[in-house]
């Protein structure tokens, strides 16, 4: 089945939010390009999604 949508979920604490995602059936991908800002997972059907600090106080500084 082709990817139909990619979701990014805001998470101020990636380590804390990773655990519930895995408990709900997600698997963490082997490749993590920017693990301090994005964590990439696959849902049980194999569709990718990310947890990210972008848009939170914990996220990277905004460029001006």
From TrEMBL:
Cite the SUPFAM superfamilies for this sequence: Glyoxalase/Bleomycin resistance protein/Dihydroxybiphenyl dioxygenase
Describe the location of the Glyoxalase-like domain by residue ranges: 4-52
Checking Gene3D superfamilies in the record gives: 2,3-Dihydroxybiphenyl 1,2-Dioxygenase, domain 1
What's one Pfam family here? Glyoxalase_6
Q: Known InterPro entries for this protein?
A: Glyas_Bleomycin-R_OHBP_Dase, Glyoxalase_6
Q: What is the designated name of this protein?
A: Glyoxalase-like domain-containing protein
Give the organism's phylogenetic lineage. Bacteria, Bacillati, Actinomycetota, Actinomycetes, Propionibacteriales
